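Fold description:
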Amino acid sequence: MEETLLKKQSVAYYQIDETTNIIIKCPKGYTPIHTGITKSQTVAHFPLTACSTCELRGKCHCKKQKRSYTVHINLKSVKTVKERGKILINRKENTSMRAAIEGTKSALKRGHNLSKLQLRGQVKSTTHVGHKVIAQNFKRFCNYMLEQSKKVKPKTKG
C-alpha cells in the first residue's frame, strides 16, 4: 500500500482551475468528459480510450469504472500544492528579509539592553522600544555620515 502511494504523481501535475478548483487537464494533457466538486474533493471523469493507453496510468490517481476512469483529488491537497508553489516563488525574498530583521533585533538586544524590559504596561513598553529604535537609527546615521566625510578629500590650494 505504501509503495503505491509513493509512486503516485503529485497533484501539481494536474491542471486545476484557480478559482473553481476543477480539473481542466490530466498530466498527459487529456481533457475530462465531466468534472465536478463533491463535499471535499474535485472529481473528473476521463474517457476509457484515453486512460487505458496512457503510459502514466500506473502513477496516476485514476480508477477504472464501468464507463470511464475517475480521478478524485482532495481539495486540501490542491490548496497545499498552491501554497507550496507560492513558498517556492517567495523563498529567496523571505529568507533575505528574515536575516535583516534578525540582525536588527540582535543589535537592539545587545546595544540597547532590550533583552529584558524593566517596564510594565503596553504603552510604556511600546514608547520605550520606540525610543530605543530611534536611538539606534540615529547612531547608524551618524556613523554613516562620518564614513562619508572621511571619503571626501579636502581641496588643497596649490
